[in-house]
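Sample entry (301 residues):
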Amino acid sequence: MGTFVGHLIPGFAVALLGLWHILNMAQAFFHKGPDNFKARFSYPLNIPFLNLRNLDLVLILSLSILAIITQVLDFPIVKLEFRLDNFEHATMFLHLLVYSGYALFAELTQTAESLYGVIAVLASSVFGQELFLLHFHSTDHVGIEGQYHWLLQLIVLVSFLSAITVTLSPTSFPASLVLAVSVVFQGLWFINMGFMLWVPKLVPNGCALHLGLPAHHGEPTVVCASKDADSRARALANLQFSWILSTVLVLTGILCLKLASSKGTTGKRSAEYQKLQNGSGGDLGLTLSIRSFKPDHSLGV
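Predicted structure, serialized as tokens:
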């Protein structure tokens, strides 16, 4: 993961996965209604004449295996690379591999509904282990790089807490939405880190991308020339964090508004019709009650 491509590809995949969850989850909520909504940790892709129902889990499983291989093997010379930070990155994908493999097996055996609790726990463990390994990372991320990784931990923490909440309360739409939004945010933050920490032209003013520093195993590292430059770079990272989050929230709000308006017309008509029926039934019952107590003049009452 310590390359531009190593941040770009996983980031794009994670952001796309989160967006897929937001779209399907919002559709399910506004279509079924709050009473019948239940969160899922994977959503099927239904395409006529193509068996791609579990495509999301297959892609997660495949990318996890590929990521583990690239972390433990040194390319282009194929040999084991015993670097602690690489094994930490591979372990993050290992938990993702366990979750996706188990969830895919449950879907194929049609036991996903009954095994929801187990799948949810495994999904939560992915974020929990990611947070644990990021926080106690063997590589000493200092300076601007440390700021970006510290902000990443905040995003993963939100994902972890919201995943636990969804596990305990699968009918909670807000918790499910926070989880999906945090996944999109995490993917976009990966991409942003790749550009800001690995593209020399995008490095903040007063900082530079240095190669071959022994403290960083010879990998490119952003180093700021002064304390003021370091402070400006950290402030820029904080602003980017806020800007990306705002963008994700605005797009999520627009998507939900569009889905709610498209489903709201039908739902509103159904509710009004049901209300009209209930009202008519109540009036009819009242009329029958009054008539039942009406005096019968033919009996001289």
